[in-house]
Write a structure and sequence with these properties.
Radius of gyration: 14 Å
Distance between the termini: 26 Å
Strand order of the largest sheet: 1-2-3-4-5
Shape: globular
Helix content: 25-40%
Strand content: 25-35%
Length: 132
């Protein structure tokens, strides 16, 4: 395996096998973390698009959205603490937006805590061709 292959981000649908890693990241990231049951709902709901992002073999983040009419309600974009601030959240969000566009949405929303300066600093172009 080449270095680039071992460091490439991969997006995989969330599955039960990912829950221990996802729950650990959730606990470190949020003062009011989602429960295991909430993640299981994402796995089982037919309209939920929820993925884990891996770097090599490590789950280093996750995120998802729900399509609501013509809008994607982004439910989560979360990166493991040691990888924050390195652009992985932007990569994950770009992936989610591309999938949402393929799903037929024309707008997206993402609510973030006021104190989350990194998330508030994300800016994306309006055109699909200009997505990073």
């Amino acid at each position: 395996m080449s270095v680039s292959e071992s460091t490439a981000l991969r997006f995989t649908p969330l599955a039960a096998v990912h829950l221990p890693a996802v729950l650990a990241i959730e606990q470190e990231a949020y003062p009011e973390p989602w429960s295991e049951g909430m993640f299981r709902e994402e796995i089982n709901h037919v309209r939920s698009y929820f993925v884990v992002v891996t770097l090599g073999a490590e789950v280093m983040g996750y995120g998802g959205y729900w399509p609501l009419l013509d809008e994607a309600h982004i439910t989560s974009v979360t990166i493991k603490d040691v990888y924050r601030g390195l652009g992985y959240g932007r990569g994950l969000l770009s992936h989610l937006l591309r999938m949402a566009l393929d799903d037929g949405v024309t707008a997206a929303t993402l609510e973030v805590r006021e104190s989350n300066a990194r998330a508030r600093g994300l800016a994306f172009p309006k055109a699909q061709d200009d997505l990073p």
